[in-house]
Amino acid sequence: MTRDHRRSLRPTLVAGAALLAVGAGVAGCDSEPPPKSARIAKGYADAQFSDTITYRSFGTTSAVDCADGKSLNVAGSNNSLTVRGRCEAVNVAGADNRITVERVEKSLTVTGLNNSVTYRGGEPTVDDRGSGNVIADKR
């Protein structure tokens, strides 16, 4: 390669490196996600549009909405939950939760420890497979 040829490549290489640097900087940019309501806990908000709500938070007080027939899985611990709507099924695998459910249609299964679950409507089959749980029918 001649000296003149190297000089003619230098501006091209510099411009290419600059474009690469700008492209790498912009690639990480993204708009902020919309803020979530303070009343909706993190573990609940991401599952609003599926048939099953999975609640994984720890140490929260929150309202959850089963709407008209969603199922609810609670895997977190030390939560106080008020569950509105008609739940198809409720499964509690966490520990030390205090849960009040408006209505459970088919099944209420508790496999966790020291949970207190109260339901106010429905005729679910109740299965306590855990230890130290209290399940109350307040129909």
UniProtKB/TrEMBL annotation:
Basic and acidic residues composition-biased segments: 126-139
Region of interest (Disordered), ranges: 120-139
Signal sequence interval, chain numbering: 1-27
Domain of life: Bacteria
Record-linked InterPro entries: DUF3060 (IPR021417)
Keyword set, alphabetical order: Signal
Record flagged with keyword Cell cycle: no
Statement: the UniProt record of this protein carries the keyword Signal: yes
Pfam families given in the database record: DUF3060 (PF11259)
Full protein name: DUF3060 domain-containing protein
